[in-house]
Amino acid sequence: MKSIIPKLYDVFIKEGYRPMGGYPAHRLFNIIAAQFTTFLKDGMLVGDFGLSLQEVQFLEGFTDYLNPGTILVVGNAHGWSTVALALMFPEASVIAVDIDSDGIAFTNGLARKNGLNITCISGRSPEDVSRIVRQQGLKTLDLILIDACHTVEAVENDFSAIHPYLNENSVILFHDLMDHKMVPGFVAILKKTGLYGKLLTRTTSGMGVAYQQVSPQLASYLDCFNDHPENYNHYRDQIEHLSGKHASGLN
Fold it and tell me: CA-based angle 8:183:224, to the nearest 5?
């Protein structure tokens, strides 16, 4: 598999936006945000903190197992995740929804200049998602990334907006579940819908993934980034003992 990361960086660097992030927090004053992607432009930080470099690498692995025709990104910001997914899946139609008009114009400009199949649209989740999906002529969504407002209520509402458009092979990704204490919302979604899910404890933000069915090969790949709660909590306890500090448990 040829990595999309050099091209992803080049798309933004050509516009004067240098992707930053991917740094272990302990190297930068224990600031967790240092792990996630933002941009340096004219010596200043620009943009929200999106998928970490390591999470982009994790998602690249999906290209061995999935071939989505339609992708929806809920929460676009400056387009880092949107462009990454468009590069990973060049045959897919990638739709991104956000309320930031500057980010929308910037992302659509990146798409035009780089020949990417991206349409970034102004809208608010959950209320505008159904309208946008219908206007784009889509009947179903194959891959969804939810990375908008970071509250339990919001993540449940964002999921409710895309739920009618899922098919039996849809895969839904949730960013920042653990870091922003949204795991209860994720668990509620799984209980309400009967979908299978995994909390990806070894991703930078503690992502989650939900689905009705995936191939055994993709399930095995996901397991490499997932821990049984008992194992995670045992590991947490040992790290807590080593550090003398309280670590966040998985309950």
Answer: 55
Cβ atoms within 10 Å, residue 172: 26
Instruction: DSSP letter for 112, please.
Output: H
Residue type, 185: G
Strands (E), the chain: 18-20, 37-41, 44-50, 70-74, 93-98, 118-122, 141-146, 166-174, 196-200, 207-211
Give CA–CA dist 175/192, Å, rounded.
20
- The domain limits of the chain are 50-243
Read off the pLDDT of each residue in 46-58 and give the average, rounded to a whole number: 96
pLDDT exceeds cutoff 60 at 15: yes
Q: Tell me the C-alpha distance between 13 and 33, whole Å.
A: 21
In tens, the pLDDT along 105-117 reads 999 999 999 999 9
Secondary structure class of 217 (helix, strand, coil): helix
Burial class, 128, CB count within 10 angstroms (exposed 0-12 / middle 13-18 / buried 19+): middle
Secondary structure class of 70 (helix, strand, coil): strand
- Taking alpha carbons only, the member of 172, 169, 179 closest to residue 205 is 179
Pairing of strands 18-20, 207-211: unpaired
User: Domain 50-243, what architecture?
Assistant: 3-Layer(aba) Sandwich (3.40)
